[in-house]
Amino acid sequence: MPVEILTIPCLTDNYAYAIHDNGSGETAVIDVPDAAPVLRTLAFKGWGLNQILITHHHSDHIDGVDLVQQAVSAPAIGAKADMHRLPELALGVEEGDAFALGFQPVHVYDVSGHTMGHIAFHFPDANALFTGDSLMVMGCGRLFEGDAKTMWGSLSKLMELPPETMIYSGHEYTAANAKFALTIEPDNQDLIARVAEITRLRARRDPTVPASLELELATNPFLRANRPEVKALLGMDGAEDWEVFAEIRRRKDRF
Predict the structure, then answer these.
(1) Phi first, then psi: what are they for 146, rounded to 5°?
(2) 36: left (phi over 0), alpha (psi -120 to 50) or beta
(3) Domain holding 146: CATH number?
(4) Of 73, 118, 188, 191, which one has the fewest beta carbons inside 10 Å?
């Protein structure tokens, strides 16, 4: 395999990720909620660290960066627009920028909504998308700084990626997200089957992340706000897609 991706549980329900390019031997970590599990994973694998990629400024995604950099000197890459709220960056990036991890190209998406300046990192050759708290498996992040129209625009960009793209999001929220999804589409057979699988995974304490974009498009209510059947179920025939998304987000906030 050209890359190896490891899920690193952190804190209570956060995930960090290590992605290793086998061709070059280079490794990146995406978000560092806590230094200790990240450093243990790198040591166990015998990997160095070449990049720290930061999706957004919330403390449960960056609090371990300084300690990791004290142990392993590695440059941090994050949003240029959010540099004032992030650990010191060696490279500030924005929508449309690209860089490389070894032989792996990395494309940057602005996915503002949960926070303004939130970015996602797409590794197209590895079919991997690291979304932080923007697109979540079976959900999306709360709108702490952006509005519904902004977040729908962000998600819509990600929905255009190849369906085989795997979504690596920042938390293990899938079971709760799935229960909510059933309140929107109780008769969605793909969703019903997926909820059963999620229940099996969590009973074994196995991660539910990553998940394919194809599966998310079929079951994640926040990606289905443009579907006529969802609009009909919500009594919003003829509404703009972002308005339907806003209603789904409001319902989730109260769930």
Answers:
(1) -95, 180
(2) alpha
(3) 3.60.15.10
(4) 73
